[in-house]
């Protein structure tokens, strides 16, 4: 499944790079179907990156690779902690 997901990411990558970002496949959990990717470059600070992930990357990967249930970033669901004043 990793190779299949990687092939789809390579198809998606040029569109993300055209906007100044990039995407890297980090892992594929074949049991749960969860794919972990890291967006970088302009995608890091872009307010639309969540939409890019769910409506773009996740939808395309789920459509093209049977068994994929979701696409997440490594920090998704992490605790944000407390605010610090400098």
Features:
86 residues, GMP Synthetase, Chain A, domain 3
Shape: globular
CATH architecture grouping: 2-Layer Sandwich
Structural class: alpha+beta
Helix content: 25-40%
Strand content: 15-25%
Order of helices and strands: HEEHE
Q: How many domains would you count in the coordinates?
A: 1
CATH topology: GMP Synthetase, Chain A, domain 3
Distance between the termini: 46 Å
Mean pLDDT over all positions: 87
Q: Counting H and I runs of at least 4 residues, what is the number of helices?
A: 2
CATH class group: Alpha Beta
CATH superfamily: Fe-S cluster assembly (FSCA)
Strand order of the largest sheet: 1-2-3
Radius of gyration: 14 Å
- The count of DSSP E runs of length 2 or more, i.e. the number of strands, is 3
Low-confidence stretches: 78-82
Describe this structure in words.
This protein is α+β, with helices and mostly antiparallel strands and 86 residues long. It has a single domain (2-72), classed as GMP Synthetase, Chain A, domain 3 (2-Layer Sandwich), CATH 3.30.300. Helix content is 38%, strand content 23%. The protein is built from 2 helices and 3 strands. The protein has helices at residues 2-18, 49-64, and strands spanning 21-29, 34-41, 70-72. Helix 1 (2-18) runs antiparallel to helix 2 (49-64). The protein is globular, with a radius of gyration of 14 Å.
